[in-house]
Design a protein that fits this description.
The chain has 268 residues and is α+β, with helices and mostly antiparallel strands. Helices cover 21% and strands 19% of the residues. It is built from 7 helices and 11 strands.
């Protein structure tokens, strides 16, 4: 896909002296873009189906970023990574293209994403990109009959899993993708897609025993007596979905931490 303005204004193209001021999330994104060419951001645990998208394909390869929605978080991230690898290996994306070697046995279809969705769905990417251009496309998967959401006869039970992001957000059919989360978000202004650090034990179900924030505002959620601050990056929304009681720590400020009490409750 050709874009008239091929410049890039992302964090990696900024003054490198500012790098020490970036928060942990942005530092991790930049590290992955430097080492691998792009970062894959997974978003799950919210009021919409899971989705994932790339950050850095435009910087590294002057390719549109890629998003994919409606499958499990790990699967979405893996498929975005596969498409990124194909682009890196000399297979640029084409308008309305279909690719048969992303999902075994099924094609994926490529359509452009309308910019009206960027702020609602791709906040971390916008923070990294700093300013346009930051083109994005969506990869769609078909139902079991090989039909896509815009095809007549598409499985109605799968229709709400994939938003049709080429349609301006204000014109998109009403549903979870166009509505704000009906549950007030307790960690405002930190959004649910914002990356936090945790441990494999917490993700496996062990209760969070300590919550901390570093000077840059990054959140850490670890079990009691954890050996470190956590080395697994996940969206904040996933932590809240797995451990609802951590909302009691939502008012925690940077440079502070709080520990669960002996009675199992968080300090008020």
């Amino acid at each position: 896909m050709d874009h008239e303005d091929a410049t890039c204004h992302c964090l990696l193209c900024q003054d490198p002296r500012a790098e020490e001021q970036w928060d942990v999330r942005d530092q991790r994104i930049v590290q992955n873009v430097r080492e691998h060419g792009w970062h894959v951001m997974g978003v799950g645990g919210g009021h919409t189906p899971d989705w994932a998208y790339s950050i850095g394909l435009w910087h590294s390869l002057r390719s549109p970023e890629v998003c994919l929605a409606g499958v499990s978080l790990n699967t979405a991230m893996r498929l975005v990574n596969i498409i990124g690898g194909q682009i890196r290996d000399g297979r640029p994306l084409a308008p309305d293209e279909r690719r048969d070697d992303v999902i075994n046995g099924y094609p994926v279809a490529i359509r452009p994403v309308h910019p009206s969705w960027y702020k609602a769905l791709f906040g971390a990417g916008l923070d990294y990109a700093c300013q346009p251009p930051w083109p994005m496309v969506q990869a769609f998967w078909p139902d079991k009959s090989g039909l896509f959401p815009w095809d007549e006869g598409f499985d109605s039970g799968s229709r709400d899993l994939q938003p049709m992001l080429w349609i301006p957000r204000a014109e998109h059919p009403a549903g979870a993708w166009t509505e704000d989360d009906p549950t007030p978000w307790p960690f405002h202004p930190t959004p649910p897609y914002h990356s936090v650090l945790t441990t494999a034990a917490v993700l496996a179900g062990e209760p969070v025993g300590m919550v901390a924030r570093d000077p840059g505002g990054t959140w850490y959620f670890v079990e009691a007596n954890a050996s470190g601050p956590g080395d697994v990056e996940v969206p904040l929304g996933r932590i809240v979905a797995l451990h609802a009681d951590v909302v009691a720590t939502a008012g925690l400020q940077p440079r502070t931490w709080v520990q669960r009490g002996p009675d199992g409750a968080w300090p008020s």
